[in-house]
Amino acid sequence: MKRIYILITIAVLLCAMLVLCAAGCKTSKPGQAQSPPVASAPPQTSSSAAAQSSSAPPPALPPVAPAVDPGPVRATFEDPYYDARYEYSEGLAGVGLDDKWGFIDEDRNEVIPLIYEYVDDFIGGLAIIRLDGKIGVIDKAGEVIIQPAYDGFYHFHEGVAWVKLNGKWGTIDDKGSEIIPPKYESLKSFSEGLLAVMYDGKWGYIDRNDNMIIQPKYQDADEFQDGLAGVMLNWKWGFVDRDGNEVVTPKYDGYREFSDVYREGLATIILDGKWGLLNKAGKEVVAPKYDAMRNFSEGLVWVKLDDKCGFLDKDGREVVPPTYDKANDFSGGRAWVELNGKGGYIDTEGNVVVPLS
Questions:
Q1: pLDDT of 24 strictly over 60
Q2: Closest Cα to residue 152, out of 163, 161, 160?
Q3: From the CB of residue 43, how many other CB atoms can be counted at a distance below 10 Å?
Q4: Fewest CB within a 10 Å sphere: which of 66, 74, 89, 257?
């Protein structure tokens, strides 16, 4: 019997050793290369989020600029030879070994040597790389298209890339030629031929040749849409046209941009915590008086007033006066409504088509 106990004990110890060994095989390699940060889209100050009214002005807006790093950690894959590997993009995959990065093809041939501190995916035949702390661009043959000289870089779009040098932003073309010198604290995106830029802490607009079309005087400036752009002055929002004329004097606490899809070509405006609608001529279709407002659905917009729900059309007419306790958006010509704990359906004219019960 004693011998049996000894054999059982040995067997248990052997099993435990096997489990520990298996677990050890799944651990990361010592000194495994960390994936460098991904080039992220340019963050932008957004007026579209509903602004809340306040007796004190909001805090000063920070300078905003297109950013390449730091960004979110890249998704990588285990590899039998390299410390880390990216997904394939345009037939090549970034690989890292001993904190150096390059590219392999789909046959695992090392087509671009591992000499870089960071590589990004190929987009349109070009990839961002970092060498000696500076950012440049290579092509799929490994040829350096833009020498590593920049502190920040955002990928090419329509042949133009945003670059950062000595804390300032500008643009270059896909040959590396300077279009807009790096002299702005922040840039947004071109829209309708104009680019919002921050200069000496104020926002204005330039054209593609770096001509200042709208002088920098605003605390924030959004992109143009259908000839109008939202601008902030003295903590209030208004709209300018492409010539810099203030079509709507800045007086609103916030807005949601003009949209043919979500708002029937109108903009949502917010003043003193109340919501309204504005057309592209700068006229208030609905004065700010509602407590809440959603997007349009099937030609009608949900509103709330004094804790009751209803619907307006694009002309501001109360098709369904705010009388219901709850209401969903329209779908298939009907909307679910509730009143005094009973629910049913109405149509887009406000008629009850399924009695509340």
A1: no
A2: 163
A3: 13
A4: 89
Calculate the dihedral angle through the C-alpha atoms of 301, 305, 310, 315, rounding to the nearest 10 degrees.
-50
Across the chain, what does the average pLDDT equal? 82
Give the CA angle between residues 16, 19, 21 to the nearest 5°: 110
- Residue at 328 is within a domain: yes
Alpha-helical (H) ranges within the chain are 2-25
DSSP state of 112: E
How far apart CA 57 and CA 46 sit, in angstroms, is: 17
- What's the one-letter identity of residue 169? W
In-domain check, residue 341: yes
Distance, in Å, from the CA atom of 187 to the CA atom of 64, rounded to the nearest integer, reads 7
| Alpha-helix residue ranges (DSSP H) falling in 76-176 | none
**Burial class of residue 249 (count of CB atoms within 10 Å of its CB; 0-12, 13-18, 19+):** exposed
Residue 171 lies in a domain: no
The CA distance from 85 to 148, in Å, is 23
Q: What is the pLDDT of residue 261?
A: 60
Q: Is residue 316 part of a domain?
A: yes
Q: Which residues contact 268 (CB under 8 A, 6 or more apart)?
A: 255, 256, 275, 276, 277, 278, 293
Provide the residue range defining the domain that includes 354. Answer: 306-357
Phi-psi region for residue 13, left (φ > 0), alpha (ψ -120 to 50) or beta? alpha
Other CB atoms within 10 A of residue 250 CB:
18
Least Cα distance to 264 among 225, 288, 297 occurs for 297
Q: How far is CA 161 from CA 90, 119, 157, 167, 256, in A?
A: 20, 17, 6, 16, 28
In this predicted structure, what is the pLDDT of residue 34?
A: 36
pLDDT for 146-163, tens place per residue? 999 999 998 888 788 999
User: Can you list the positions of beta strands (E) in 73-143?
Assistant: 84-89, 92-97, 100-105, 110-116, 118-119, 126-131, 134-139
Name residues whose C-beta falls within 8 Å of residue 233's C-beta, 6 or more positions apart in sequence: 217, 218, 219, 250
Question: Mean pLDDT throughout 344-357?
Answer: 94
pLDDT at 174: 84
